[in-house]
Amino acid sequence: xxxxxxxxxxxxxxxxxxxxxxxxxxxxxxxxxxxxxxxxxxxxxxxxxxxxxxxxxxxxxxxxxxxxxxxxxxxxxxxxxxxxxxxxxxxxxxxxxxxxxxxxxxxxxxxxxxxxxxxxxxxxxxxxxxxxxxxxxxxxxxxxxxxxxxxxxxxxxxxxxxxxxxxxxxxxxxxxxxxxxxxxxxxxxxxxxxxxxxxxxxxxxxxxx
Length: 209
Fold this sequence. Notes:
By secondary structure, the protein is mainly alpha-helical. The chain has one domain (about 5-205). The chain has 10 helices and 4 strands, in the order H-H-E-E-H-H-H-H-E-H-H-E-H-H. It has helices at about 5-25, 25-40, 70-75, 80-85, 100-105, 115-120, 135-145, 150-155, 175-190, 190-205, and strands at about 45-50, 55-65, 125, 160. It has a two-stranded antiparallel sheet. The chain has a two-stranded parallel ribbon with strand order 3-4. A hairpin with a 5-residue loop joins strand 1 (about 45-50) and strand 2. Helix 3 crosses helix 4 (about 80-85). It is globular.
């Protein structure tokens, strides 16, 4: 049984951390948009529909790290790339759509900073399961029917900027293992566990450097 104080306390922690991190990393908010504009044409921010708590879709924000028409290239223009994307558990190890600057800001997860806005809006938490694509959950659910219960557990909480899979291998974690980790997190509902994940996050961010 979930303690009555878990959700309001977690929301309070989300708001405080979002504001503190937003202030600490203010130079990032000022410098990265300029670098993005110098690096390639297109908008500064990238919004993409993801599935949140109780299956509600929302626009997840990121600093743009790909070419302007990245979604059209993947889903409409390049079937071979789409096939590799799905075969790789909806991830591409060597994505040709990523810009030179995009590779740098992705390697240290700076591209995900605008998700603090999603947290302030109440669509995400600082810590939580991955924010999945609707098509990803539908197709992976058909491919792995045993994950139906896991997906239901994952969608019982808000997705997070960081979480168990991000601190345990990120793109190297296959969907089935990722879903099990995210579902276990959702069932646990522990603020102490959130703190442990937060402490692991900085080393995970710089693990590729």
